[in-house]
Amino acid sequence: MVEKFIRLSNGVEMPLLGYGVFLVSPGECERCVTDALSVGYRLIDTAQAYQNEEGVGNAWRKSGLKREDLFLVTKVWISNAGEEKAAKSIDESLRKLQTEYIDLLLIHQAYGDVFGTWRAMEKAYRDGKVRAIGVSNFQAARFFDFAHYVEVKPMVNQLQCNTLIQQTGIEPILDETDTKMMAWGPLGGQGADGIVQSKLLANIGDKYGKSAAQVALRWLTQRGIVAIPKSSHKERMAQNFDIFDFTLAAEEMAQIAAMNQHDTGTVNFGDPQFVKYLIETYG
Fold first, then answer.
1. Is 50 considered catalytic here?
2. Which residues share a beta bridge with 253?
3. Nearest alpha carbon to residue 279 among 79, 49, 60, 43
4. Which residue in the list 41, 50, 111, 125 is annotated as catalytic?
5. Does domain 5-282 match CATH 3.20.20.100?
6. Phi and psi of 143, rounded to 5°?
7. What predicted TM-score, i.e. pTM, was given to this entire model?
8. Residue ranges per structural domain of the chain
């Protein structure tokens, strides 16, 4: 049986495949999420910084789906860091998403008062406003340090991860706290182009009647990594979603593993200029 879910450390079941709305404009978000839900996606990944939480909320509310059949993910941004500000931002996200609870709440970036933010998230978790909490873009050393000092250990770490950026080095660190990996950019982008044009992935896909992109997504989910591909085209959404009717052989998994080029990602989260850019652009 092909697994379509993973179980987080607190027992919450999370879909292995979802739909991401990074860089989807507020005006387009409702339409895109509506299409994604109609295709069959039930995990929707957004963030405060994306400024499209309201579109997600409108789409699921109009879909006719039961709230318990959805898995909504959002993230606390740097400008909302700190216990008091984060708590207010969580309530604001709940309002925009038109829901009484968030399935997974992440710290978006490892900057600002992350420990204050986490205390607010822990309280929201205990109060039932959030079903699971985690982090995003926390590299190995930063994650280890952070997880060592918090009471509730992160259940998810969302990282840039795909067949060219495999994040294998952080996996043993995540395993220590039973933290699951969630992949942003699962089909490339931001310095990791070439996945959908890969001859290796295309050749493997021919065996199963699948595209290179479908093989890339199957490789991630077969490793137990949650993938959140993005597309504004319904046909592509449907293709990306159609990956659970085949299983890659061990030899094929190993061949794809040999594609790794940037184990920790192409974005230098430790670059002061990058941090400055984040704060000045999105803060």
1. yes
2. none
3. 79
4. 50
5. yes
6. -65, -45
7. 0.96
8. 5-282
